[in-house]
Design goal:
The chain has helices at residues 10-21, 27-56, 63-93, 95-98, 102-123. The chain is mostly helical. Helix 2 (27-56) runs antiparallel to helix 3 (63-93).
C-alpha cells in the first residue's frame, strides 16, 4: 500500500561534490558553504534512509500498523521536503559565493517537486479500516439483474 517513489540521493551527491570542485577558486567561501550545507546534506541522507526502511517493511497486517506506518512515512516525507526547501533556499541565496552550479539547483528543484508530488499522492489518502461483512450473509457481489418484464417465451 505504501510504496515510495524512488527518492534520489543523486542531488545530495552532486551538492557534496560542488563545493569541493570549486574550492580552488574560492577557498574561504567554500569553507563556509561546506560548513552550512553539509549538515543539510547529511540530514537529507538520514531521512531518505528512514523512508527507505519504512518502505521495505512490507504491507502492514493490521489497521493500527497501517496507520502508524502512514503517519511515520508522511512525517518523514514532510521533514525531507522541509530540509530540501531549506537547502534550496541556501543554495539560491549563496549561489555565487559558494560557486553552486545551475545544474545543482535544477536537480534539487526537480527532486523537491517530485517529492512534493509523491507526498500529495500518498499522504492525502490515509488508511481506512475496512468494515467486516455482516454475519450470516454469504457475502459475494450484487444479485444478477432481473430480466425485463415484457419478455415472453413463445
Amino acid at each position: 500500500m505504501l510504496r515510495l517513489v524512488s527518492i534520489s540521493l543523486v542531488a545530495g551527491t552532486l551538492l557534496a561534490a560542488a563545493p569541493v570542485a570549486a574550492q580552488e577558486s574560492a577557498p574561504i567561501g567554500n569553507q563556509f558553504c561546506n560548513k552550512d550545507l553539509q549538515p543539510m546534506i547529511d540530514r537529507r541522507g538520514k531521512i531518505a534512509l528512514a523512508l527507505q526502511a519504512i518502505n521495505k517493511r512490507g504491507r502492514p497486517k493490521t489497521f493500527e500498523q497501517a496507520k502508524k506506518t502512514f503517519n511515520e512515512f508522511c512525517g518523514s516525507l514532510s521533514s525531507y521536503i522541509e530540509n530540501d526547501k531549506k537547502m534550496l533556499d541556501y543554495m539560491q541565496s549563496n549561489k555565487e559565493f559558494c560557486s553552486i552550479t545551475d545544474e545543482n539547483i535544477k536537480q534539487i528543484t526537480a527532486d523537491l517537486s517530485q517529492t512534493q508530488k509523491t507526498k500529495a499522492k500518498i499522504c492525502s489518502h490515509p488508511p481506512r479500516q475496512q468494515a467486516a461483512p455482516p454475519p450470516g450473509r454469504g457475502g459475494g457481489g450484487p444479485a444478477a439483474p432481473k430480466p425485463p418484464v415484457n419478455l415472453r417465451l413463445q
